[in-house]
Amino acid sequence: MRKIIIAGNWKMFKTSFEAVELVNELKRTLSDVSEVDVVVCPPFTALAEVQDVLLETNIGVGAQNMYWEDSGAFTGEVSAPMIKAIGVQYVIIGHSERRQFFGETDATINKKIKAALKHQLTPIVCIGEVLAEREGGKTFDVIKTQLDGSLVNLTAAEIENIVLAYEPVWAIGTGKTASPAQAQEVHKFIREWLTKKFDAAIANKVRIQYGGSVKPENTAELMGQPDIDGALVGGASLKSDSFTAIVKNCLQVI
Ligand code: PEP
User: In the chain, how many domains are there?
Assistant: First the structure.
């Protein structure tokens, strides 16, 4: 049985002071939840302080991006060893906003995944189609291309240590959630891709999150789908009450 994993992507929101306030709240509201893996991904500037607050709690911490080299003349970048040294366990890789605004490609995403795994960080790898691709009937082609490209040359042992996040771009920050059936259909396709590439046992171990306007009201139905194993949450992760409710609503389907 795959354990549900709910991760909050705070994007470019929260100063370190605000971040500490939020995680102090979450520490209180979620301290009794062990059935679901919970992760928060604050901006780099708040990472160390958030990690300190959440030390020895059941809430994990993730970065939102990283560069693939360990060190060097790469002004403005942050490496996996730097993130790892803080004690952080996860890193979001290839979010659609990084693809759209910062030129990330499946090839650069693959390098980042490899580097994260080398340093024992769990990558949360994002894939998903834009609206025109969905409307053009190209969703599965796009997902296949992204999987083929971003996960190329990963071993079975490596693939077991990643989390995938299916995020239809048209559903991110728009309030337009994919229906549970629409999401499940793509998650099933992703698991079938994993089965073909590796085998059924491995495919059954990999957790696939859904992301795109997840809120407390749609959580249980989405998480109740057979191939949906969690959520990557943007907007609703910025407030303790909505993020807490999303995590707690997962308990209805466990
Ligand atoms: C995201 O940022 O990954 C996301 C899914 O955002 P939202 O929940 O706001 O749609």
Answer: 1
Q: Separation of 211 CA from ligand 1 center, angstroms?
A: 6
Residue closest by Cα to atom 3 of ligand 1: 234
Query: pLDDT for 50-75, tens place per residue?
Result: 999 999 999 999 999 999 999 999 99
Please tell me whether the overall predicted TM-score, pTM, comes out greater than 0.90 for this model. Answer: yes
Catalytic residues: 95, 167
Contact 206, 212 (CB under 8 A): no
Q: What contacts 81, CB < 8 A, 6 or more positions away? A: 70, 71, 119
Q: What is the CATH number of the domain that holds 53?
A: 3.20.20.70
pLDDT at 76 over 90: yes
| Single-letter residue type at 227 | D
In 3D, which of 152, 141, 59 has the Cα closest to residue 112?
A: 152
